[in-house]
Amino acid sequence: MSRRASAITPETIAQAAHLVRSMTDPRPQMEDLVGPVCTTADVGEWLGITRQGINKAVRENRILAIQSPSTTWYYPTWQLLDDHSVVPQMSQVLGRLVDRVDQLTAARWFWTASAALEGATPARWLTDQRDIHAVVRAAESYAKRQANRQSDRPLYDPEIATASRA
Fold this sequence. Notes:
This protein is mostly helical and about 170 residues long.
């Protein structure tokens, strides 16, 4: 059996280095990116609804959901209120981001302080029940800025037919 001679090129070295970095670099956890999250089962239990009810709420932009690369669905906990309901104006705000930014980008926006919201995060603005028009304008402005950027992630897809097993 003969072996083929292989040439080590700068491209091969760069690919190998990238592979090693991707395997050894610490990856941020979902919580680091978007704040505390829970699973589909947790949301169902908290809200007292089925997975189908959660799917419908996500499709209608009433609940923000983020799908991990392992296809597990996560839900930022800030949107779940103490009275076992969801932030009431979520659909007005989330609707400005859907089809314009991917899920993770949308979730990160909600968790990032905004000058347009007096330094508050959109999540805090919503949970404090402050002026809905201000946060809707901030979402619209953010979505316009993001629409001009290229992303390798798919846009927000609320179809969660393959819901998490968790």
